[in-house]
Sequence to fold (327 residues):
Amino acid sequence: MKSPHPSLLAQLDNVLGSRYFGFVAGLAFALAGLLALAAWAQGADWEDVRAALWRLGLNPAITIYILLVHPFMHRRWQRAMDSLHALAPDIDAASSDSAASRREWGALLLGALIGFALAYRTPAAEGWLRVYALATSALTFALLGTAIYGSLARSRHLATHSRAGLELSVFDGHLLTPFAQWGQSLSLVFVGGISLSLLFQSSHSLRSIEGVVIYGSLTVIALTLFFMSMWTIHVALAKAQQHELARVRSDLAAAREALQRERSAGTAGTMPDAYVPAVICGIYEQQVLDASTWPFDPAIFGRVLASAVAPLTVYVLKIAFGVGSGL
Fold:
């Protein structure tokens, strides 16, 4: 089974190796230093610099956050694909690395243009601070563009293999737990981004109806991502369940007919043996019905639901104590 074309961030991680997190740390210090320098160049005092860090710090923070969580998410996805490969080693799907690379670069450039346009239309500062806001907004949305494209490419890759002949047993769900762990991580990363964004909002904006609706909707989306990330696997397992149910019910019907013939013939000596196939088929039918068509256990689902508490906690703290700027 071929893996999808490695993303730009995955290539950066591979090139830097053990130096990757050092690079991210250096970029974080550089972004913070450039923000302070831009504020100082406009003659701002320390209080103005501090306010600028809160007012313009969201985009750099999201940028660093994306870079930090990417290696973790990439490893989770690789483990998920390895578990699928173990069940369907012969499935292969053709893909064009050059076409995938061009599409990802297109997503990156489109994201950068959107970020630049948003920052240009809603200026949060003037002078050098505005230049900083334009540059960091373009960088953040460029990374978001690649991240969104990567998620879509992974879903498409999985769907392609499913159409290529992926057949699962209804009892294979536990073998695909890495997919549930990847979906859990995807949801947690999204929740983390929401919580980080909340830190940079003013309590005034959070008290508005619009703020409540927006962040409430984002939290629901984060939980929905958990299920969407495993939808193809769920469909395959549900199909396997229906197929197995059709087979066992056919066998059960045959066993019942044989039992009724024995009862009608009145052959008491063979009656106990005639019950055995019907009982076995009935028990197996119930096992098939009880088999989960989602590759996760209650503990994983519970952690996903519990993660929704994080944005709520940040929201309550912001409202109660007015942490941040513009308060």
The chain has three domains: 1-167, 169-230+296-327, 241-290. The first helix runs from residue 8 to 16.
